[in-house]
TrEMBL record:
<keyword id="KW-0418">Kinase</keyword>
<dbReference type="Pfam" id="PF00294">
    <property type="entry name" value="PfkB"/>
</dbReference>
<dbReference type="GO" id="GO:0016301">
    <property type="term" value="F:kinase activity"/>
</dbReference>
<keyword id="KW-0808">Transferase</keyword>
<dbReference type="InterPro" id="IPR052562">
    <property type="entry name" value="Ketohexokinase-related"/>
</dbReference>
<dbReference type="InterPro" id="IPR011611">
    <property type="entry name" value="PfkB_dom"/>
</dbReference>
<feature type="domain" description="Carbohydrate kinase PfkB">
    <location>
        <begin position="1"/>
        <end position="326"/>
    </location>
</feature>
<dbReference type="InterPro" id="IPR002173">
    <property type="entry name" value="Carboh/pur_kinase_PfkB_CS"/>
</dbReference>
<dbReference type="InterPro" id="IPR029056">
    <property type="entry name" value="Ribokinase-like"/>
</dbReference>
<protein>
    <submittedName>
        <fullName>D-sorbose</fullName>
    </submittedName>
</protein>
């Protein structure tokens, strides 16, 4: 059994589509509203869940992959937690039934941090402008963040699992995340873990220190531009000089596609967007979709696809995502785009 542990926040997103961004102290009618589960790691899990279904894509691995979410959530019996767990499947009658069904589908929530006395989830309110496609996000979260000690309790649960485990970190609260990564390596050993991190939020101090401790690094265009980079290759060539243990670093660059580099051999690979985007419908979660595509390639097709194939697959997947609301049907459509047969859902 292979294990992918994803560490990050889980949000409930309220997406308001508006004709244009509202001016202060004025009233504006939204054209639509959607409420959905969000957060970087949960979004990535949702896409991976589709890719891991055998009917969608061929697998090179003989071992199944189980995904584990590590995230602060409201108390276990709360309605919000039941809705979050059920969001990964057609909703069963109870939270327990939803969790059991999700586990059967390759996702477990046993290592989430259920906060007693809290009923409300972390929430995001997203204003999406139909005029220019911009997204303005207002967050609220009063759930206590994960501590290093709590994370170490999770790590202990994997000590006797055997084999190599993959740990993916969103990159929230960099000081705590760095402490967790160092503690993880001490507890299980470098030979037993692979660590990937997201360097996404502009202005968030400590992200470079996280990247330096990771095996795989995902940079965002917004972070790179905030650091003064005007091109993807310039970002990777310079940032990779400070990545002593990293085997692969990559950055997405919007409509231009994505780049990756192996810091050890300085090999730079580019994957452009091959199929033009007809219309950007919903870019929320596009980066999370790219991460899902790369993790799928790196974990499930490690010995089958070369890095160019993996990067191209992730770019194609993210390109499909921005042309739809949410993530539904991505697994089916990426196979169809790749020339495979249609898949029953």
């Amino acid at each position: 059994m292979k294990h992918l542990i994803l560490v990050g926040a889980c949000y409930v997103d309220t997406v308001l589509s508006v004709p244009h961004f509202p001016e202060e102290d004025l009233k504006l009618r939204a054209t639509s509203i959607r409420v959905r589960r969000g957060g970087n790691c949960p979004n990535t899990m949702e896409v991976l869940q589709q890719l891991l279904r055998a009917e969608h894509l061929p697998h090179s691995q003989t071992e199944p992959l189980t995904m584990h979410l590590v995230s602060p959530l409201p108390e276990r019996q709360s309605q919000a937690t039941a809705q979050i767990i059920a969001s990964f499947l057609p909703a069963p009658d109870t939270a327990a039934a939803a969790a059991a069904a999700a586990s059967a589908a390759g996702i477990t929530f046993d290592h989430c941090l259920f906060r007693q006395g809290h009923q409300a989830p972390a929430s995001s309110y997203i204003f999406r402008s139909e005029a220019n496609g911009s997204r303005t996000i207002v967050n609220h979260n009063d759930l206590p963040d994960m501590t290093t000690d709590e994370f170490l309790n999770v790590v202990e649960a994997f000590r006797d699992k055997g084999g190599r485990t993959w740990w993916h970190f969103e990159g929230r609260v960099p000081e705590t995340t760095l402490s967790c990564i160092l503690a993880l390596r001490r507890a299980l050993g470098d030979d037993a873990v692979t660590v990937s991190v997201e360097v996404e939020r502009p202005g968030r101090a400590g992200l470079r220190e996280l990247a330096a401790e990771a095996d795989v690094v995902f940079y965002s265009k917004s972070w790179a531009e905030a650091c003064g980079y005007t091109s993807a290759d310039d970002c990777l060539r310079k940032e990779s000089l400070s990545l002593p243990r990293t085997s692969l670093a990559m950055v997405t660059w919007g409509a231009e596609g994505a780049w990756c580099i192996s810091p050890k051999d300085r090999q730079l690979v580019k994957s452009p967007v091959e199929r033009p985007v007809k219309q950007v419908v919903d870019s929320v979660g596009a980066g999370d979709t790219f991460v899902a595509g790369m993790l799928y390639g790196l974990i499930c097709q490690a010995d089958t696809w070369d890095v160019t194939h993996k990067l191209g697959f992730a770019v194609a997947l993210a390109t499909l995502k921005v042309q739809r609301e949410g993530f539904g049907g991505l697994g089916d459509d990426i196979r169809r785009a790749d020339g495979g047969p249609s898949v029953r859902r």
